[in-house]
Amino acid sequence: MKALSIAATGMMAQQTNVDVISNNIANANTTGFKSARASFTDLIYENMSREGAVTAEEGNTRPVGLDVGLGVQTVGTVRLNTQGGLALTENQLDLAIDGRGYFTINLPDGGQAYTRDGSFRLSAEGQIVNQQGFEVDPGIVLPDNTTAVEISDTGIVSAYVENDTVPVEVGQFTLTTFVNDAGMRPLGDNMLEATVASGDPIPALPGDAGIGILRQGYLESSNVDIVRQITDLIQAQRAYEMNSKAIETADQMMSAANQIK
């Protein structure tokens, strides 16, 4: 009886599903977080009788086959890159991307990561960095005695120095896009890295065709829909219970067969 192992694959798949849903719920208030869903496929089938086989001397053929599937497997987690809501912070270094694109972050090991989290701060040297202290690429350094910063929708950074009434342009934010955003690998700390599946990073300027613009004083909220996640959680729980019931039923049938005298 294959039901025991088949139902076991279903229980393991639903365990993964609940893990993914739980991570979505846990990050419901994480800046720039994109929810994910588990993706499943059926396993191979054991063919006991092939469709189209000849069943009589007259040449009659079997209209359907007899195939028994061996269960389910988790093949990946699909990140849903829909736009999150914009939350007003009034912090002049907070930036939200309204549309496509990622900020580029230079990592200490020389690599680069990408993020939708625009919670930027200043280092001791006046350089714009993320919350982990990693510099934004391209690097932007504010002059000493900067009293205010203006960042345009197209990413131009201007600084008001001391009592000057005319701002000084000090840098330009750029954005990066990918052919397959879902193929990026999450690193934690609200950062992602490029992979072979995502394709090479494509640099762009905010406001270019098909590229988002920047909103100063805002942060992008998580795109997690709590109601949808709770519904998915209930469905996963019921699917887990049904698979466990299938194991219980198979066990009872095997026990009955063993007791035949």
Topology:
Layout: H1 3-26, E1 36-42, E2 45-49, E3 66-69, E4 72-79, E5 86-88, E6 95-98, E7 103-106, E8 112-115, E9 121-122, E10 128-129, E11 136-137, E12 146-151, E13 156-161, E14 168-172, E15 175-177, E16 185-188, E17 191-193, E18 202-204, E19 213-216, E20 218-220, H2 226-258
Antiparallel strand pairs: 1-4, 2-3, 5-20, 6-19, 7-8, 7-11, 9-10, 12-13, 13-14, 15-18, 16-17
Helix pairs in contact: 1-2
Quick synopsis:
The chain has 261 residues and is of the alpha+beta class.
Structure description:
This protein folds into two domains: 3-81 and 224-258, no CATH class; 86-220, no CATH class. Helix content is 22%, strand content 31%. The chain contains two helices and 20 strands. It has helices at residues 3-26, 226-258; strands at 36-42, 45-49, 66-69, 72-79, 86-88, 95-98, 103-106, 112-115, 121-122, 128-129, 136-137, 146-151, 156-161, 168-172, 175-177, 185-188, 191-193, 202-204, 213-216, 218-220. It has a three-stranded antiparallel β-sheet, with no helix packed on it. β7 (103-106) and β8 form a beta hairpin. The chain is elongated and about 100 Å long.
